[in-house]
Design a protein that fits this description.
Shape: globular
CATH architecture: Orthogonal Bundle
Number of helices: 18
CATH class: Mainly Alpha
Order of helices and strands: HHHHEEHHHHHEHHHHHHHEEEEHHEEEE
Largest sheet: 4 strands, mixed
Number of strands: 11
CATH topology: Cytochrome p450
Radius of gyration: 24 Å
CATH superfamily: Cytochrome P450
Helix content: 40-55%
Length: 499
């Protein structure tokens, strides 16, 4: 198919487009015939409306993707399929089915499908990688992150430094209103940058700020380019309508930046003992073999993008909830004031004295749920789930939101209630259905670092400031790469504390 599509480049635009449409129509009809044969094996149900070539794509374009997936779930059940271009996608909902797939049958359901961005990564990194190489890279990242999290003073020192900067930047506003996105991006990108790259990095430099900007652009451009994974011929359309060329250019720029950091790290020399950051862990000899630089670069980029985007989006939702529920904000402040002397930055060691703060973070992760469908998965072999046949290579969407918003799992799930995670003894508990970081082999490796960032930044913020928001219009969310709130502005009011 790819060979045929490449020949289209040599045609004029009109002829090329006609050729593509006819070819894909024939291809789609062949696929329909295949699916008709497979129906004897009971494929999951699908919406009755579809169009030649694009399949069910128009359904996904009508409204926000998450809303569409949940509407189809109501119609078709906890497992259903969508035909998009030449790709079969199966959407899995409910804790029962997700557990069956990603825990009981993890070896079958834990691969990633082939994507346009995977081509750029050249079988490197950790997020889109599969097989033994992925397992090795994941073990390396987990080992280094556990080192950071088991020695909390290392991570907390990095976070505290950025909290000071964050609070100074808020103070400089003088009580004016501001879109908090850039404030949060500056702070969290600096934390993630130090964890990933270490002390060779000047997080205040324009060079680093450009790297962060390019990374954010990669994330949002990739979200627009995802259609190419299902309709690959669209990449040959003029004017880069689906940002394929843009993604390639940005990927090259971010790669060159990390390469420069590797060169600087080697010039400084690697420290003895445990590595102080993820990059150095990779650069040290592993089993007597020097790390593959392309693998180092892509893994750093993967973890940087994932850690920055999700944490910033979650903190933005935190500000929405603080301003929408002033009684919750007041209760947080009361608990923090009781647990910490004025002017004392919080530590994870203080978590036990602040159960409501911890419960707030958990409810924030559940209710905001910035990764409601996670990343795409793929099955490695023919399999069945809940009596339905799923062919090898099928793309899988895990509907995590279906678990976190299920009234059977969480009473009144659309209400924001931190106290749902506090038991009768006043202690925090974690239900097994609390899976904002998912579970199984693709469980988020940065969970502990993300939780630490959220806990310390939020505690420091409510300790020093009361947050308000102009207007009464609700802040709505939309699914891009993450489920993020629409733009809004807040005002930070300095609290006068005795001490």
């Amino acid at each position: 198919m790819v060979t045929i599509l490449y020949s289209v480049v040599n045609m004029d635009v009109t002829t090329g487009l006609v050729f593509i449409m006819v070819f894909l129509l024939v291809h789609k009809l062949f696929r329909v015939r295949q699916l008709h044969v497979s129906m004897q094996k009971s494929l999951p149900p699908c919406p009755s409306f579809w169009l030649p070539v694009v399949g069910h794509l128009p359904l996904l374009a009508q409204r926000d993707l998450l809303e569409t997936l949940n509407i189809q779930r109501q119609k078709l059940g906890d497992i259903y399929r969508l035909e998009i271009g030449s790709t079969t996608v199966v959407v899995i909902s409910s804790y029962r089915l997700l557990y069956s797939a990603f825990i009981n049958n993890a070896d079958i359901f834990s691969d990633r499908p082939h994507t346009v961005f995977m081509e750029l990564c050249k079988d490197n990194g950790i997020i889109l990688l599969n097989g033994p190489k992925w397992k090795k890279q994941r073990q390396m990242v987990l080992k280094n992150f556990r080192y950071f999290c088991s020695r909390t003073t290392i991570l907390e020192t990095i976070i505290h430094k950025q909290i000071h900067r964050f609070l100074d930047n808020i103070a400089a506003l003088g009580g004016g209103t501001v879109d908090p996105t850039q404030l949060l991006t500056d702070a969290i990108s600096s934390v993630v940058g130090e964890v990933m790259i270490g002390k060779v990095l000047d997080t205040g430099s324009n060079e680093f700020k450009n790297y962060v900007s390019d990374h954010n652009d990669v994330v949002h451009s990739t979200a627009k380019a995802v259609i190419l994974d299902f309709l690959p011929f669209l990449r040959y359309f003029p004017l880069d309508l689906f940002r394929h060329t843009r993604v390639e250019d940005l990927h090259l720029k971010t790669t060159l930046f990390v390469q420069k950091m590797i060169d600087a790290k080697r010039q400084l020399g690697l420290e003895k003992g445990e590595a102080p950051d993820l990059m150095e862990a990779y650069l040290k000899c592993h089993g007597g073999v020097e790390a593959d630089e392309e693998q180092v670069i892509q893994t750093i980029s993967d973890m940087f993008a994932a850690g920055l985007e999700t944490t910033v989006s979650t903190l933005r939702w935190a500000l929405v909830y603080l301003t929408q529920y002033p009684d919750v904000q007041a209760r947080l402040q009361q608990e923090v004031d009781h647990a910490l002397p004025p002017g004392t930055l919080p530590s994870m060691a203080d978590k036990g004295a602040m159960p409501y703060v911890e419960a707030f973070v958990m409810e924030l992760l559940r209710h905001a749920n910035v990764a409601p469908v996670g990343l795409l998965h793929s099955v490695t072999s023919d399999t069945t789930l809940d009596g339905y046949f799923i062919p090898k290579g099928t793309t899988i969407i895990p509907n995590i939101d279906s678990v976190l918003k299920d009234p059977d799992n969480f009473e009144n799930p659309h209400e924001f209630k931190p106290e749902r995670f506090i038991n009768g003894e006043g202690k925090v508990f974690k239900p097994e259905t609390f899976i904002p970081f998912f579970f199984g082999k693709r469980l988020c490796v940065g969970e502990q670092i993300a939780r630490t960032n959220l806990m310390l930044f939020l505690t420091s913020l409510v300790q020093g400031y009361t947050v308000t928001r102009d207007g009464t219009d609700p802040v709505r969310g939309a699914l891009n790469i993450t489920y993020c709130p629409s733009n809004f502005k807040v005002c930070f009011h300095k609290r006068e504390l005795a001490g």
